[in-house]
Amino acid sequence: MRGLAEYVMRGRMQALWVAVLGASTLMFSWISAAVIALVTLRRGPAEGAYILAWAVLPAGFLLFTFGDSGPLGMIVGTTAVAVILRWLGSWPLALLAAMVVGAGTGFALLTFGGAYLEQLAAVFADFFGRFEGSLPQAQLQAPGVATLAGMLGLINAVSCVLCLLLARWWQAALYNPGGFRKEFHGLRLPLQFSLWLVLGMLVVSTIGSEYRPWAILFAVPLSVAGLGFVHARAAHRKLGPGWLSVFYLLWMLLDPVKLIVVGVAVADSWIDFRSRWPRPDQDEDLQ
Questions:
Q1: 18 and 122, same domain (yes or no)
Q2: Which residue segment(s) compose the domain that 229 sits in?
Q3: Is residue 82 over pLDDT 50?
Q4: More confident residue, 130 or 16
Q5: Of 121, 148, 179, which one is at a domain's C-terminal end?
Q6: Tens of pLDDT along 138-179?
Q7: I need a surface site. Which of 20, 109, 128, 161 has the fewest CB within 10 A?
Q8: Contact criterion met (CB below 8 Å) for 202 and 218
Q9: Where is the domain boundary, 179, 197, 222?
Q10: pTM (two decimals)
Q11: DSSP the chain
Q12: pLDDT the model gives residue 260
């Protein structure tokens, strides 16, 4: 992956070709989004906007041909979030921007993609109906239009965050070795941000079960901050990559682990655990 970043940063045409080719496919549009974000972070929003303008063409063609707005939403959303990080240098604000992008994606689908959402809902309803037919005791409810819009918005928000993290890792690997690790390990949301995110998550979750994905959108910045804290703690305790692999496996499979990560991020906003950890030289004094 670093080799790809080195190739992209050789010049505008190299970045342009990779971004356009990536945006031409449903499977590799994330590469296009990460490349445009890297150009934006390193060379500025104007250069990133130039690459984006060309990448929008094949992504728009996919939307027109297959009705899939995912690639277009991903590259545009990731570029917007990268601009925030470039201008303000703030990961908390960039994560909030990704959440806004996800919410905007959901509202745009509800406003302009009603027919697409209804078709998607019909597909799910048919699938769930067949599944219930084979398992009469199962009680499954197919997602409705509002749920699907929230799910697609949530997917786009997470995709934007992942692409931005990849772009930032590329930038650090090429120009500032160790910089991404320092940023990610030090990621901590301000207390006001955390409280508003928790409040938003609770309020939206009370509207109804069909809005659960919309509520989870508020947990995206908290989850990323919590994962940054986990990595920082693992590095401080000198835990190996195997420990993190087990943790991520549990995090993906178990919802309580996801809630714990969110809770840790909120608590860290209040307490700032890292400032209370003993320094390495202090650890040696205690031994």
A1: yes
A2: 186-287
A3: yes
A4: 16
A5: 179
A6: 566 778 899 999 999 999 999 999 999 999 999 999 999 999
A7: 128
A8: no
A9: 179
A10: 0.92
A11: -HHHHHHHTT-HHHHHHHHHHHHTSSSSHHHHHHHHHHHHHHH-HHHHHHHHHHHHHHHHHHHHHH---HHHHHHHHHHHHHHHHHHH--HHHHHHHHHHHHHHHHHHHHHH-HHHHHHHHHHHHHHHHHHHHH-TT-------HHHHHHHHHHHHHHHHHHHHHHHHHHHHHHHSTTHHHHHHHT----HHHHHHHHHHHHHHHTT-GGGHHHHHHTHHHHHHHHHHHHHHHHHHTT--HHHHHHHHHHHHH-HHHHHHHHHHHHHHHHH-GGGGSPPHHHHHHH-
A12: 96
Buried b (16+ CB within 10 A) or exposed e, 176-214: eeeebeebbbebbbeeebbeebbebbeebeeeeebbbbb
Query: Which residue type, as a one-letter code, is found at position 127?
Result: F
Here the tokens at position 220 are 């995206």
* Amino acid (1-letter code) at residue 185: H
Question: CATH no. for residue 24?
Answer: 1.10.1760
Residue entry with tokens 């067949």: 130
Q: How far is CA 119 from CA 114, 123, 141, 155, 248, in A?
A: 9, 6, 16, 19, 34
Residue with token string 């031994």: 287
